[in-house]
Write a structure and sequence with these properties.
303 residues; alpha/beta; TIM Barrel; 8-stranded parallel barrel; two-stranded antiparallel sheet; globular
């Protein structure tokens, strides 16, 4: 699959219920996670997702008139026994009602096969090893997801809390991402907070590492802030963006020629702690970077 850069969108925010007009005016587009609009049930041993129709209708009404991108949570693209087909069914349903500009998923797995053959849910996404075996599993799946909807598919770099992940030939996270995007044709959703967490937790230089990344494959950037526990940085979207992450954005943005979107992420339940005023300030700061470094062509106009 050939990599084709999508149109530039600008600055966006995750769709949440009841966003005030002051926030809505600051975004060019919405990022929707279809999983949060669904209920999950176990039927005959299979995990089945289905939409809360009222939540879906409310979301479609709220995002009408703005471009939409999709960020999945539950595909489990890295599961050895196969991904979550139930997630693709709900994505099919969303695409039929609301075509999206591109879609993305975490480079991780949630589902595993137990000793008795039953599918187990890990509870939290887990990272993949930096091996040829993992690349052989992921690349055809990423190609298929790009072809399925006729729009770009992106994979998001992930926090890997486990030390000593298996690696072939000394391949690190950056080399793995480069190989994966090259072999699959997919784009990259570069989560700079995740990247920063890994750099702090495992003691590497994030700028040096980003300098080796194929930045022409970066289509979207995520910004977030999270918790620190005993000096260990956690991927929890519950704070404003820390200054070192803003510094990484300043470095990456002018060097990523196909960057089409910047998204500030904060969990819906954390918004009351952060406050809408602070959310607005984060979006405005992201827009300043976008207008300085990224808006080489016209972004979608704000309503």
């Amino acid at each position: 699959m050939r990599f084709v850069p999508p149109p530039k969108l600008g600055v966006g925010f995750t769709y949440q219920r009841g966003l005030p007009q002051a926030i809505r005016r600051l975004v060019n587009f919405y990022e929707v996670s279809p999983d949060v609009l669904c209920r999950e049930r176990v039927i005959g041993g299979e995990r089945v997702l289905s939409y809360h129709e009222d939540l879906l209708d409310e979301a479609l009404e709220a995002i009408a008139g703005r471009p939409v991108i999709v960020h999945g949570l539950g595909l489990s693209i890295g599961s050895a026994a196969g991904w979550n087909a139930g997630y693709l069914r709900i994505l099919d349903g969303l695409h039929a009602r609301c075509p999206f500009v591109w879609h993305s998923e975490h480079l991780a797995f949630l589902l595993a096969q137990g000793p008795d053959g039953r599918t187990l849910h890990t509870g939290v996404p887990l990272p993949l090893p930096f091996t040829e075996e993992a690349l052989d599993l992921l690349a055809p799946r990423a190609r298929a997801l790009g072809e399925r909807y006729g729009v770009p598919f992106l994979l998001e770099n992930f926090t890997y809390y486990l030390p000593g992940l298996p690696s072939d030939g000394g391949r690190d996270e950056v080399a793995f991402l480069n190989d994966l995007t090259e072999r699959s044709g997919c784009g990259l959703l570069l989560d700079l907070y995740n990247f920063y967490c890994n750099a702090v937790n495992f003691g590497f230089d994030p700028v040096e590492a980003l300098g080796r990344l194929k930045l022409e494959r970066v289509v979207e950037i995520h910004l977030a802030g999270g918790a620190v526990h005993d000096g260990f940085h956690m991927d929890v979207h519950s704070q404003v963006v820390p200054e070192p992450v803003w510094a990484l954005l300043d470095w990456v943005a002018p060097r990523a020629p196909n960057l089409a979107a910047i998204v500030y992420e904060v969990l819906e339940q954390a918004v009351p702690l952060v406050g809408y005023d602070a959310v607005g300030q984060q979006l405005e700061r992201a827009r300043a970077v976008w207008e300085r470094d990224c808006a080489r062509v016209e972004a979608y106009a704000l309503a």
